[in-house]
Amino acid sequence: MTRVTPVSAADVGEFAPRPGRAPIARMALAQVWMELKLMLRNGEQVLLSLIVPLGLLVVCTTIPFISVDAAEGERADFFVPGILALAIMSTAFTGQAIATGFDRQYGVLKRLGATPLPRSVLLLGKTGAVLVVELLQLVLLVTVGVALGWNPEGDPFSVLLLLAFGTAAFCGLAFLLAGALRAMTTLALANILWFVLLVFGGIVYPLSELGAAAGAFELLPSAALSTGLREVLQHGHVAPFKDLIVLGLWAVVSLTAAAATFRWE
Fold it and tell me: Would residue 246 count as lying in a domain?
């Protein structure tokens, strides 16, 4: 008979790579990087998130087809905060809703949900990619705005607070649409709502021009974000409590509803 020599743990050593799930932080960073690459490779998302806001800023500032009260300062002082709000809405709401809706239709979310990647980290990765794109938008729009004569005022912390609340509100709305509706329905509805929020959100003209209905439109997230940013960047005030409350309520309600209705398949 052949004698079998027992093998000790010291002889075996350690497996490399060691099997097992990666730490949550490493998975989150990897997912953010993947989502960011997918966003920047998508021509439609780049157009919606970067080119359209930048083009609107240049056109609205240099071509006086929209009148601005002289008391409001330079044209760039009025338009830059509104276009910043539009950029946040385009990325966190419209682009996010469309991308997530098609990921669900094509089975991407279902397959990722079957991996060790927690679904919460998947959504965190999408949100993290949105934040990176928003940082890029902020740098580009601020640089172009200053070149066009913009003279920003106010507290940077108030600006970041408004942008954070606005991002949460629009991401909640994006996940609410993408998780409950078919991809093509999400595509159509997200674009329609983008236009509605642009027109009635005081982004390219004051809400006061809407007449008696202005008070109701102030409750829109785009109106709260654009108005709040103008109060800080144009008039030097701190972040308006009313606008933060409006954005906070939109964020809480939409994220709660999305968590209850989101379908991964």
Answer: yes
Read off the pTM: 0.84
Token digits for 9? 């743990």
**b/e map of 93-107 (b: 16 or more CB within 10 Å)?**
bbbbbbbbbbbbeee
Look at the chain and report how many structural domains it folds into. 1
Q: Are 258 and 176 in contact (CB under 8 A)?
A: yes
User: Which amino acid, residue 176?
Assistant: L
pLDDT digits (tens, 9 = 90+) for 122-160: 778 888 888 889 999 999 999 999 998 888 888 889 999
Burial class of residue 211 in the structure, from the number of CB atoms within 10 Å of its CB (0-12 exposed, 13-18 middle, 19+ buried):
exposed
Q: To which residue do tokens 């008039």 refer?
A: 235
**Rounded Cα–Cα distance for residues 29 and 212 (Å):** 48
Could you read off the pLDDT of 67-112 as tens digits, one per residue? 766 455 578 888 899 999 999 999 999 989 998 888 888 888 888 7
**129: containing domain:** 24-259
Nearest to 234 by CA among 183, 162, 127: 162
Task: Decide if 17 is inside a domain.
Answer: no
179 neighbors 102 (Cβ within 8 angstroms)? no
User: What backbone phi and psi angles, to 5 degrees, belong to 144?
Assistant: -65, -40
> Quick count: other Cβ atoms within 10 Å of Cβ 217?
17
List, in order, residues 6 or more apart from 104 with CB less than 8 Å away. 110, 178, 179, 183, 263, 264, 265
